Amino acid sequence: MAEMSVAGRDAFLEQTRIGVLATLDAGGAPLAIPIWYEWDGARARMFSSGRSPKVARLRRDGRVCLTVAEPVGVPEAWVAIEGAATIEEGTGFALAQRLAPRYYPAEQAERTLAAWERVAPDWVTIVIEPRRIRSSAPE
C-alpha cells in the first residue's frame, strides 16, 4: 500500500462515499458515526442538527477524524482527515441541499429535503480544518 498523491486523494474524496466521523465524548473516548460529507480540496464539510449529540461533543472538544474508505470487494483504499472542527450556525441546510442529490435518488432527495426544510434554521455545518491527512491505496 502507498500514500495517495494529492490529486488521487482529492479524486477519491470527491466521489460519493459515506465517511465515518470520530469525535470525543466527555471522558475522552472516541465515538464514530457514519456521515455524508463534502470535500473541497482543503476542508471537509458535514451537516447536522445543532442540537445533535455529535455537535455537542464538537462544541466541547473539536478534535476529530473523518475516515473515508472503499467498500469490501474492491482494492483497499482510504483517507483519514485529522484536525479541528468548527461549527457554522444556520448553514447546514444549504449543504444538505447539495449533498442529498448525490446520496439519494432524485425523488427521495426531493421528499427528504422537503421534510428537512421545516427544521432548516437549526442545522449547522461542521467544517474540518485538516491538521494531518493520511491515505493508502494499492500501488
Question: Which structural traits does this protein have?
Answer:
4 helices, 7-stranded antiparallel β-sheet, 139 residues, alpha+beta, Pnp Oxidase, Chain A, 7 strands
Model description:
The chain has 139 residues and is α+β, with helices and mostly antiparallel strands. It has a single domain (6-136), classed as Electron Transport, Fmn-binding Protein, Chain A (Pnp Oxidase, Chain A). 29% of the residues lie in helices and 38% in strands. It contains four helices and seven strands. The chain has helices spanning 6-14, 53-60, 92-103, 106-117; strands at residues 19-24, 30-35, 38-39, 44-49, 63-69, 78-89, 123-136. A seven-stranded antiparallel beta sheet has the order 2-1-5-6-7-4-3. Strand 5 and strand 6 form a beta hairpin. The longest helix has 12 residues, at 92-103. It is globular. 22% of the residues are buried. The mean pLDDT is 95.
Q: How many whole angstroms does the radius of gyration measure? A: 15 Å
CATH architectural type: Roll
How many structural domains in the coordinates? Answer: 1
CATH class: Mainly Beta
What is the residue-mean pLDDT, rounded to a whole number?
95
Classification by helices and strands: alpha+beta
Please outline what is shown here:
With 139 residues, this protein is an alpha+beta fold.
Layout of helices and strands, plus pairs?
Blueprint: H1 6-14, E1 19-24, E2 30-35, E3 38-39, E4 44-49, H2 53-60, E5 63-69, E6 78-89, H3 92-103, H4 106-117, E7 123-136
